[in-house]
Amino acid sequence: NRLYFRLRTVRDAALVIGGESDGEQELRQFEAVRERYRISTALHTDGDAEALLGRLEPFTTVIVGGVGQELRLRLMGYCFEHNKRLFVIPTVQDILFHSAHETFVGDSLVYL
Questions:
Q1: 77 vs 83: CA distance, rounded Å
Q2: Dihedral sign computed on CA atoms, order 48, 78, 58, 33
Q3: pTM for this one?
Q4: What is the 3-state secondary structure (H, E, C) of 13-78?
Q5: What pLDDT was estimated at residue 39?
Q6: What is the pLDDT of residues 2-56, one digit of tens each?
Q7: Cα dihedral value 51, 52, 53, 54, nearest 10
Q8: Which of 78, 83, 89 is nearest to 21 (CA)?
Q9: Tens digits of per-residue pLDDT, 48-107?
């Protein structure tokens, strides 16, 4: 066990939650794997996006839940540019699109 924990250190994570989520469920999910992730802070998306991105600097992992589409895309870009691990908790819309059947009508992609 000691070797496992030396090779796989606990990742320091920040939870970014929007108005659509209170963060309780996300915290419970990641508490189950506390040997891998430690949520050090929970950030709400009420304020300025630039200030939010600045507060993510010290963390190696970012968990996103219940945020709007525009901010989620911005967070994805930030994490990619700064080599941070990103977990996105899907919305109902994400799940429906993921399980939808793709088809083309002419040259347009549509989902069934």
A1: 10
A2: positive
A3: 0.75
A4: EEEEECCCCCCHHHHHHHHCCCCCEEEEEEEECCCCHHHHHHHCCCCCEEEEECCCHHHHHHHHHH
A5: 81
A6: 776 667 777 888 888 887 666 677 777 777 676 677 888 888 887 788 888 999 9
A7: 50
A8: 89
A9: 888 889 999 999 999 888 888 888 899 999 999 999 999 888 888 878 877 788 888 888
How many residues would you count in the chain? 112
d(C-alpha 95, C-alpha 58), whole Å: 31
CB 73 within 8 A of CB 79: no
Structural domains in the chain plus CATH codes = 2-111 (3.40.50)
**Residue 50: Cβ within 10 Å count:** 9
